[in-house]
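Tutorial handout. Part one gives the primary structure; part two gives the three-dimensional structure as tokens.
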Amino acid sequence: MANVAEVSNRPLALITGASSGFGLLTSIRLAQEGYFVIATMRDIGKKEDVLAKAKENGVLDHIALMRLDITDSDNIVEVIEQVMERWGRIDVLVNNAGYAVMGVVEEIPMVDWRAQFDTNFFGTIAVTKAVLPHMRVRSQGKIINVSSGAGIIGFSNTGAYSASKFALEGFSEALRLELLPFSIPVVLVEPGTYDTGIAAKHVFRAEQNSPYSKMIERFNQFNKKSEKNAPNPIQVANTIVKICQSRRPKLRYVCGNDAKMIFVMKKLFPWRLIEFLLRKALH
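Part two.
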């Protein structure tokens, strides 16, 4: 693990959920762009993919790996204390860790609702609260929260996931206003569907002989088609790099044509028209 001297000339970024997908790609890209990266993950046994990718891209010396379970408050405090003790600062926090529970509202057990929010929402809050005092005293830093197109419009079968991302959006808006006097921008990244392999990690909930079976099947077919034609997720990692390098980043960065279409629909169309289009596409 690098020492203070080795990272003194590099801003330090801490990324959650860095074992795969956006988190892994962002870790590599930020290291390439002059950052020292603390790549964290719940299962440190998955570190080999990160190490291999870092070595392949010549940035192995600019990435440190740490276990961080964002649903474990003691682990969060321990990790942030270790980072501050060893490196003395966190310049960028990328809250990326998350997953998706899929299913209709009626058929998702409450235990899954709570687990969804524990990771996607409360975990993000807990990590942010642990990092924030260290940024505030320096009046320096950036907080980047990875949301979703499902945080712009709630789709059938994504109720739990959308709700957690809607909550993240409201949290980020409020936090951004609170931190403006301290020169700490809070930014939302809203990706659409990308080929990250995250679909394999989705938790699907559906009852046998469900009255929603036709709707669920139609949605799953639509989802598979979207994932098959999804663009390269490096676009999202490059967007996060752009945010890190910007002196005055915007509140929202929408990534992917599908998410951009959703954003425009929500902004310009009446809900009745949105409802009609979504029922036609997904039901």
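Part three, for discussion. Strands lie at 12-15, 36-41, 63-67, 92-95, 101-102, 142-146, 186-191, 203-204, 252-255. The chain has ten helices and nine strands.
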